[in-house]
């Protein structure tokens, strides 16, 4: 079960409503019919186990390679605020923990313990946290931190003894709900819930150094106690006014006093944010959702560019900020799972790629992934990006793309950006190119526009780097991923230490994605060009650029 739920500032940097989704059932009309491309830029569907992934070795020289390039200098380490969840343990059994894969790339791996209330308090008043504490310690011995996710609300989550209190069943919004939930606002349920949360705090679990996060949810028609209150996600302030919701949040704040930053909610509540709690969504596989969403700092400017409001509290305070990018097994392309993402796995690497960039664009610091990766080098890069801020990020980047959101007329949404900004300007006009059809009709996309463009083309393309990213750095690596289409020469142009400089490149019409790496010493503060970094085509040639990354070296 998942919840569906920018202010461009010129600067510098280095290269709703709640919808509760249970199971999609797609008919043939849900699928885009003209799937002409074969997602060739992302390769075929192949699962690499976590234990086989390593950080690729940094290459300190100028190159042009086929494919994408996710290299970072070997000195880069993961943020202390980041966590990569690559396993879930259901219940109190220890076998899953014993089988945790060895992690050989730089990351902060965690396992999420999904435990039911009934497993910890089978007899009223007799709560036993010892099996959970033992599992937390066993996971730590394997090199994993722990996320604690205790489920309360469903009739099969709560203990059998709860039935004697004759608590009514919550009326769900969906007819064919997976779960039947108790009415959690009922005084008998609420009183015992608060007692349990108090006992959790007294157990010492929240303050264990091995524990990296604790989930605070509500009730939902699908598995997971999703949400934070009875109102839909769009009514953030409405949930804040509900007495029992505030008391639940207060109980968690008291239980986790001193480590409130570990708590993350299953829905939006300003009352919880003010306690220092974070948020976990969970459907970034649908990478265009939450656009716009002021609650997480996602806005669209007047020209259609997706921008981040960096002053948003979740981002500015680097609160626990999570996403899930984990529905990539073959089963998701079957009748049993309603062909949730299409009739085969062919588009999965592209969707995995795009969702990873989106969650980083949203400034997430927590990611639930599979126990495998479709793009292993990219996942090792993502792990080093999670939780990084403009002050400590090793790189900044711009994915030049365009999609069309549903509205009275199609609303373009341009680019996923992380402190590098591409903007059109007189003489620097671009057009979206490299069309990729969606395998399904995503609900937020304008009808009959079920496609993305994944590059921009222009004779001149301008990029600015956020000033706050640059700091005192002057030496950078710039990695430019481009579609090698057409024959022509083009250059990266920038203000060097003493004069304008250019680095020449060539398109040879191979039809492949290529990445050029250039090392530059730039003076972005005293530039004589409209933009910090510019791509110029020679003559009337228009290079096709997909991804530009600036790296501090």
From TrEMBL:
One Gene Ontology biological process: carbohydrate metabolic process
Single GO term (MF): beta-galactosidase activity
Domain Glycoside hydrolase family 42 N-terminal: 113-202
InterPro entries documented for this protein: GH, Glyco_hydro_42_N
Keywords for the protein's UniProt record, in alphabetical order: Glycosidase, Hydrolase
Tagged with keyword Phosphoprotein: no
UniProt keyword Hydrolase, yes or no: yes
Residues annotated as transmembrane: none
Designated name of the protein: Beta-galactosidase
Organism: Lutibacter agarilyticus
């Amino acid at each position: 079960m998942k919840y569906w739920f920018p202010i461009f500032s010129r600067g510098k940097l280095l290269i709703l409503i709640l919808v509760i989704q249970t199971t999609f059932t797609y008919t043939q009309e849900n699928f885009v019919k003209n799937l002409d491309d074969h997602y060739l830029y992302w390769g075929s569907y192949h699962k690499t186990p976590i234990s086989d992934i390593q950080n690729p070795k940094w290459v300190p020289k100028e190159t042009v390679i086929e494919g994408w390039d996710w290299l970072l200098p070997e000195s880069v380490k993961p943020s202390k605020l980041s966590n990569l969840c690559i396993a879930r343990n259901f219940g109190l059994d220890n076998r899953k923990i014993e089988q945790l894969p060895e992690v050989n790339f730089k990351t902060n791996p965690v396992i999420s313990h999904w435990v039911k209330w009934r497993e910890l308090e089978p007899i009223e008043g007799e709560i036993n946290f010892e099996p959970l504490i033992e599992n937390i310690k066993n996971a730590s011995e394997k090199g994993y931190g722990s996320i604690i996710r205790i489920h309360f609300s469903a009739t099969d989550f709560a203990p059998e003894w709860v039935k004697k209190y004759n608590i009514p069943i919550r009326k769900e919004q969906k007819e064919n709900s997976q779960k039947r939930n108790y009415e959690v606002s009922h005084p008998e349920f609420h009183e015992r819930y608060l007692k349990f949360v108090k006992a959790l705090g007294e157990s010492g679990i929240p303050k264990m150094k091995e524990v990296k996060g604790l989930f605070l949810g509500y009730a939902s028609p699908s598995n997971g106690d999703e949400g934070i209150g009875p109102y839909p996600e769009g009514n953030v302030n409405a949930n804040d006014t509900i007495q029992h919701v505030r008391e639940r949040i207060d109980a968690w704040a008291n239980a986790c006093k001193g480590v409130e930053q570990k708590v993350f909610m299953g829905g939006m509540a300003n009352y919880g944010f003010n306690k220092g709690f974070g948020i976990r969504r969970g459907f970034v596989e649908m990478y265009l959702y939450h656009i716009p969403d002021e609650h997480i700092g996602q806005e669209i400017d007047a020209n259609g560019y997706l921008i981040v409001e960096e002053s948003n509290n979740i981002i500015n305070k680097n609160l626990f900020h999570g996403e899930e990018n984990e529905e990539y097994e073959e089963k998701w392309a079957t009748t049993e799972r309603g062909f949730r993402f299409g009739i085969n796995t062919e588009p999965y690497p592209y969707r995995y790629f795009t969702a990873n960039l989106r969650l980083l664009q949203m400034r997430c610091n927590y990611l639930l992934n599979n126990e495998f990766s479709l793009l292993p080098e990219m996942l090792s890069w993502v792990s080093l990006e999670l939780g990084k801020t403009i002050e400590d990020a090793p790189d900044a980047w711009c994915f030049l793309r365009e999609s069309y959101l549903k509205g009275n007329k199609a609303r373009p949404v341009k680019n996923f950006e992380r402190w590098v900004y591409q903007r059109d300007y007189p003489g620097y006009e671009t057009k979206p190119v490299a069309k990729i059809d969606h395998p399904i009709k995503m609900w937020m996309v304008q009808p009959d526009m079920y496609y993305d463009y994944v590059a921009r083309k222009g004779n001149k393309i301008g990029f600015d780097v956020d000033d706050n990213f640059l700091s005192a750095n002057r030496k950078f690596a710039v990695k430019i991923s481009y579609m090698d289409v057409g024959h022509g020469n083009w250059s990266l142009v920038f203000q060097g230490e003493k004069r304008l400089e250019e680095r020449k490149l060539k398109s040879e019409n191979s039809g492949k994605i290529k990445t050029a790496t250039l090392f530059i010493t730039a003076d972005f503060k005293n530039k004589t060009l409209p933009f910090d970094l510019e791509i110029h085509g020679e003559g009337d040639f228009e290079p096709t650029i997909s991804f530009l990354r600036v790296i501090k070296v």
